[in-house]
Design goal:
By secondary structure, the chain is an alpha/beta fold. It is 28% helix and 19% strand. Among the domains are: 43 residues; 121 residues, no CATH class; 166 residues, no CATH class. The strands form four sheets. It has a twelve-stranded mixed β-sheet with strand order 6-7-5-8-9-11-13-14-15-18-19-20, with no helix packed on it. A four-stranded mixed β-sheet has the order 1-2-3-4, covered by helices on one side. A two-stranded parallel ribbon has the order 10-12. 38% of the residues are buried.
Length: 480
Amino acid sequence: MPLIYPECPARPPTSIRDLPSEVLIEIFTYLAHIDSLSPLTVASVCRPWRSIVFNAPSVWRLITLDSRSRDISALQTHALYWMTKSEPLEFDVEVNVAERDDILLLLSPFLSRPQKRWRSFSLTGPDTLGVYPLHNVGRTTKLAISVRGDGGSLASAILGIPEDDDGVKGSVNLDISQNTLGVAVNALPPISRIHPIHLTMIHISEARPEAYTKPSTLLAFLTACPNLQQFVFMGWALRRDMDEDVDSQDDHQTFVEEKLPVVYLPHLQVLRLRSTCSTRTFLSRIHTPALSELYLTYLNVDFPLPPHVDEGDEGDSEDESGDFSRSPSSDRATGMGLRKLIKRSNPPLRVLDMDCSDMRTKDFRYVFDHLHKLEEFSIVASDLSDNVIRLLAPYYESSDGGNVKLRVPRLSVLRLFDCIRVSGDAIVESLSRRVEVMAKYRDCRGSFREVSIIGCERFAHIHGLALRPQLGGAAFLYDT
């Protein structure tokens, strides 16, 4: 007997509105990869879909920004909104840019808050050959910006790519071991176009001579970095036409009238300045009450710097000591900038490192008189004289005797490298007297841990033999 199968009842076609929410979410998520604004479009169809979209973080996980078709500010708002709606899921960012400077502007919303959820970043542009994603971007704690001046391709818009590279593959410099995201720009963006950057470490470098960054631009950018703890600025070569924020008489008049604002950096602990003629302007315009380490490198120049807006400040007169200097103008600029920083912020500076950077004798006196917590002082290739070294010796509070005093009473590390004018006699006398006082007075904390005297031509072997027993157990390095 043949089997008889029951006839299946006819079913009406299922409407998309009858699909389970889980299926709709998958559809809407797929659609979001085709059209970046589709979540908003879908949400406007009906109330049920609106409820589904606004309660499905996966629909918002892909953030696509195209500066060729929409305004930068609208894209920044887009990024912030999509980040909020995708919580708590990880999200991916795809950026398509028309110009290199658009990149940092579009990245700034993602850097405006800790983004552990930021999974990947992809960059495309008119002269790139593909999409090459960058993974684990959310680990970023340091932003490295290379200022390259006008020109250059988008293929070189990320640090580490030569101009003749034929694409961006391998060019996205996310150093996971250092948690560093590197981006190149033609110039630093104006403060009105960038979102505050929450990162604690920022490194800005000028990649070529035409990339000169005026101190007014640099200071304005730092106002967008309220959480900054470590800041490095590396200029290009020191040049006569790139010194201070005055390029012409008109610029100088504007500079004087506007008076650059003071930038408050309450968390800044480490500051490094290298190869810039704007030292005085920069140091005079920052307030850093937590600064503990200052590194000044390659600031000496052998040409005169232009007049500064703050000329006439206390200490701006000529140095009464008359000590020799191969870089008198930059010595004055560095010293006056450091004076202003100390006077405004009274920072708890522990480390002062000066490499091919100098000050006048009167500025060294001011610095040593006010840095009561300084523990390490290093100076390389300096014209400092015996008068400066003698500032480290004990002195009496008044001319007729009184209490014996020590400048920088916590100094425990002293490094003198290639200081060719200071004499061995002055070093031995000053440090021997200092050690004696440090051992005698209990209120002076500690004693020398390390003394290094390398490449100082007037420090001979006989001076080393005389100084070694005075330093006790301190590490003592010298050559002759």
